[in-house]
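Task: sequence design from structure.
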């Protein structure tokens, strides 16, 4: 029987064996996450009352979804290319990863990465709404006026690269546990999917409520400027960029 530690060692050695291995595994991982969460969201919406749908449309536009999938696959390709840099940095000893599991420190590390993801997204998103960045880059994402779960990675390749840098700073600053690092893309796409599925399950709450993140991001797609945050409304409050 292969022990959990041996399994981790096998996966670690295979992932960092070569840039090709790293690229392939990262591409497959992001592809699986993308289609898994988007498909799950579509399935769940079958059981949700239509009155919760923000756009009022009965179903998602198939042509829009095809376009979103096309751009998302390009974004996933960019994420996988960025993983090659991580492979090189790890092999060269520029970064370190903790391959042990310690529950006591794992939860705080996941929380730190969660808050960093929120800040990184807000800063990048603000930049993407400035001049050239919006006209030539971020506008592609906003062609999904009524977003769908498949629009979570529907980016220009430059935007995909910019958002994909979220992992770099933590890797160079601290040897996070590998499970904490893996939680980052999972958390990101899970929350991103809920932010783009065009449903508001809490219509009676104020727009500033934590549970209204789906509504806030839907309004961002409608009105374009404002609500630049990811899940938390805190940075929109601090910088007064929230909209209703």
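Answer:
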């Amino acid at each position: 029987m292969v022990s959990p530690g041996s399994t981790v060692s096998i996966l670690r050695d295979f992932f960092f064996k070569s840039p090709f291995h790293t690229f392939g595994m990262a591409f497959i991982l992001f592809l699986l996450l993308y289609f898994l969460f988007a498909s799950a969201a579509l399935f769940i919406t079958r059981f949700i009352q239509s009155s919760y749908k923000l756009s009022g449309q009965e179903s998602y536009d198939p042509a829009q979804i095809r376009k979103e999938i096309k751009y998302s696959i390009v974004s996933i390709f960019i994420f996988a290319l960025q993983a090659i840099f991580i492979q090189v940095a790890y092999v060269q000893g520029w970064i370190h990863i903790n391959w042990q599991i310690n529950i006591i420190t794992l939860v705080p590390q996941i929380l730190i990465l969660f808050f960093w993801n929120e800040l990184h997204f807000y800063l990048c998103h603000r930049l993407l709404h400035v001049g050239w960045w919006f006209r030539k880059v971020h506008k592609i994402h906003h062609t999904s006026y009524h977003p769908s779960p498949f629009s979570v990675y529907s980016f220009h390749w430059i935007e995909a690269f910019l958002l994909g840098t979220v992992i770099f700073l933590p890797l160079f600053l601290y040897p996070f546990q590998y499970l904490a690092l893996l939680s980052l893309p999972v958390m990101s796409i899970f929350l991103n999917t809920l932010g783009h599925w065009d449903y508001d399950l809490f219509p009676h709450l104020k727009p500033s409520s934590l549970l209204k993140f789906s509504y806030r991001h839907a309004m961002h797609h409608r009105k374009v400027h404002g609500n630049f945050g990811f899940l938390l409304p805190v940075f929109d409050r601090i910088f007064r960029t929230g909209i209703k």
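Residues 95 and 172 are 5 Å apart (CA to CA).
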